[in-house]
Every structure is written in structure tokens, then in C-alpha cells.
Design a protein that fits this description.
The structure is a single chain. By secondary structure, the chain is mainly α. It starts with a helix and ends with a helix. Mean pLDDT is 87; it is low at 1-27. The chain contains 13 helices and no strands. 80% of the residues lie in helices and 0% in strands.
């Protein structure tokens, strides 16, 4: 018997909401987990139910249970790449970055356009002490994502800074803003790095772009400080 669309949709929505609101994730995760367990018990042969059960365990931080649910989902016929992606997320959050990267390598070999997973592989590389590979994966992922977020760009910047590549970190911020627009957090980060590199004219131009959007007193003060330099 197949899981009906309504409970499946409700569970998926619950997972999304819990992730989107970290302050409420603990409560949301356990509510979703209870419902996921109910659906998995009612529909033991449905791979979608077992996969959502695994995701709920992941959200609740229950790694062993999540992996067991994933094994069951795979035996019930769940998509191998989807199982691999969730398994990688479990390993990454559990601090087993090497296993996470291995899972992601397998999935990306078949789905190189899965840019969200490419970004997660970058996180795994970073955890393994390979910021060079992380920066490369982050850059490719951001370029291919339909809607990258500022935190994606910041992660790439940080990976490059850890390599001592400040100029490249500034370029990464600028490339991110080509996709996202002049986001204040990214622009201010670029201002800070430009000042460190001695590029005061470029830093002033960035602040002028921000001040054209809003007359923030802090930005005005920063501009005065740069002029005083």
C-alpha cells in the first residue's frame, strides 16, 4: 500500500520548517519524528515513508536510527542517489566526514549537476582539512545553484582565507554578488578585506553602493575612517 500524498507532504513540510527555523528545530524535529514513525509503521513497504523516517531521525540527531531507516528504504526500492545523499548528510553531521565524502562522490559521479550535494562535499572536504578542494567545490556549486544564499558565499570566502588567498576571497565575494546582488553582509565583508589589502578606493566604492540603498550610520562612520586613512 503506497503512502498517500497528504501525509507525505505534511512530513516533508515539517522537515523543511524545522530546518528553516533552527531555534524551534528541537521541538519541530521530535514532532516530525513521531509522525514519521507512525507513517513508517503504517506503510512498512513504502520507500518514501522509510526515507522520510530516516530524514526525521537525521533532523533529531539520531544517527544510528537514521542509517537503519536508510538501509530499510534502500531495501524497499528507494532511489539510490537519494538514499546516498541522506546517508552522506548523516555521516557529515555525525563527524564522519570521510564516509560522507565517499557517499557524495558516488552520487555526484552519476549526478554532477546536483549542486547542493556538491556544496555538501565541499563541507566534507573542509572537515577533512582540505580547504583547497572545499573552495573548488563551493565555487562550482554556487555557480550552478539556481538560488545560492549568502552563507554559501561566506563558506567559500572562509575556505580561501584559510589558504591565505585574500585576493581570491574578495573575488569570491564579488562573484557571489553577481548572483545575489549587493547583499550587505557580503559587501561589508569585501570592504573589510579590501581595507586589509590596502584597496581603499575600492572599499569606498562598496560603501557608496551600500549607502545608496540605506543611510546606515555605521557605514557612514566606516567611510569616514577610510577617508581618514
Amino acid at each position: 500500500m503506497s503512502l498517500t500524498p497528504r501525509p507525505l507532504l505534511a512530513l516533508a513540510l515539517g522537515l523543511v520548517l524545522a530546518v528553516a527555523h533552527p531555534a524551534e528545530a528541537h521541538v519541530g524535529a521530535h514532532e516530525v519524528l513521531r509522525e514519521a514513525e507512525t507513517q513508517a509503521e503504517r506503510h512498512p513497504d513504502d520507500p518514501a515513508a522509510q526515507l522520510l523516517h530516516a530524514r526525521a531521525h537525521l533532523l533529531a540527531g539520531e544517527w544510528t536510527a537514521a542509517l537503519a531507516a536508510l538501509d530499510l528504504a534502500a531495501r524497499r526500492g528507494a532511489d539510490a542517489d537519494e538514499v546516498g545523499a541522506v546517508r552522506a548528510a548523516v555521516f557529515l553531521r555525525a563527524g564522519r566526514a570521510k564516509r560522507a565524502k565517499r557517499e557524495l562522490d558516488h552520487v555526484l559521479a552519476r549526478r554532477p549537476e546536483a549542486y547542493a550535494l556538491l556544496f555538501e562535499r565541499g563541507r566534507a572536504c573542509l572537515a577533512l582539512g582540505r580547504p583547497d578542494k572545499a573552495a573548488r567545490d563551493f565555487g562550482r556549486a554556487i555557480a550552478g545553484m539556481p538560488a545560492p544564499q549568502p552563507e554559501h558565499v561566506i563558506a567559500r570566502r572562509d575556505a580561501l582565507l584559510s589558504l591565505g588567498r585574500t585576493d581570491a576571497a574578495v573575488r569570491a565575494l564579488d562573484e557571489g554578488m553577481v548572483r545575489l546582488g549587493p547583499v550587505a553582509s557580503l559587501q561589508l565583508s569585501a570592504v573589510e578585506l579590501d581595507r586589509a589589502l590596502g584597496h581603499r578606493e575600492r572599499a569606498l566604492h562598496r560603501l557608496d553602493v551600500l549607502l545608496a540603498q540605506a543611510a546606515n550610520p555605521f557605514w557612514v562612520t566606516q567611510r569616514g575612517d577610510i577617508l581618514a586613512e
